[in-house]
Amino acid sequence: MATPLAERIRPQNLDDVVGQQHLIGKNQPLRNILESGELPNLIFYGPSGTGKTTIAQIAAKLTNRKIVKLNGTSASIADVRQIVASLDTIDAQNGVLLYLDEIQYFNKKQQQILLQYIEDGRITLIASTTENPYFYIYPAVLSRSIVFEFKPVEIQEIKKAVLRAFTILSEEQNTVFDIESGVIEQIAHSAGGDVRTAINTVEAAVLSAPVPKAGEHKKISLDLAVGVGRQTVIRYDQGGDEHYDLLSAFQKSMRGSDPNAALHYLARILEAGDLPSASRRLMVCACEDVGLAYPQIIPIVKAAVDIAFQVGMPEARIPLADAVILVCNAPKSNSAYLAINAAFGDIRAGKTGAIPRRLQNMHYDGADNKNKGQFYEYPHDYENHWLPQQYLPDEIRDAVYYRFGDNKNEQAAKEYWDRIKKKR
User: Does position 370 have pLDDT exceeding 80, yes or no?
Assistant: First the structure.
């Protein structure tokens, strides 16, 4: 079976690695560690295709250790014990570097057993994960490791890998490629920060290009690159960091009244097929961030969401875009959000008290009650349908949760009630 191009051209030293210069650039922390010759336990956290495996292999080479690779989705503790048993062999005399990919799939018990071996130094661990390690990795393993975050590789860096891939394939096939303008950029952009995806696209483009006639070069057209390349990669693992980061960016852009950014994130969410999450955040934002500054927006946004679910994708993008732009352009107020949070705060702090008698459901007064009657006064019997009357329990009778926002709608309400209440 032929080795994939991404594996054949995997960098053998740090200078050939694209991206992650905040970690492996000159005088950066991870580079300094690897070049010191002393290798602590490391955890690499970040998206796939960003160099975690490559740097682990270079780490083994720089520290003269045998590297053994396991994947958390299929490995077991028996595999780890087998690695420990190999420590007496000649090829492991400088120690074993265990590269455990997707460590988040190791359960707590498995990670605890693994801890025994890394604690006494029989195994040096480099673990990689696409999930937040502080949520998925056993704290004792974390405390004995240094965590480095890998980021999606920048477009300019991916272009270097794409050019290198074309160069190596040209040499392997002894063929000159006629690469149409825009091909390199298209492949780099469509990879979504994943170098492996970009290299696989190069390989697919070369394999699927028409066989040239004698004396001609193999043509790699832009249409071909678009055709064989995957649609732009949307990093969106529901339940993972990318999922919540994208939804957070979507809502914060609407709250910040930036329709261009909000539409960008909406498109990414819908492209990933998550219509429910986009709709939920949109409705929450209408209530939380526009709220009483323009209360009519709440049923409008709900109607847009209902239409989106009724028509489905791709047409659902249209009513949702209408609603997103409306939310972005609307005046903002979080007064109701702050008010209900303040009320919850008192409840959770135990500040409740008995419901005032006048507000209780009418029921029979016992013979021992000397002050019989409910004493509730019906506001509609009074001018302007209002009278001063205590509604909160005695313990918190003076609590203030809601404060009028500074928008036109709430200030109009404030002016009305100030005028009414000053009459009393």
Answer: no
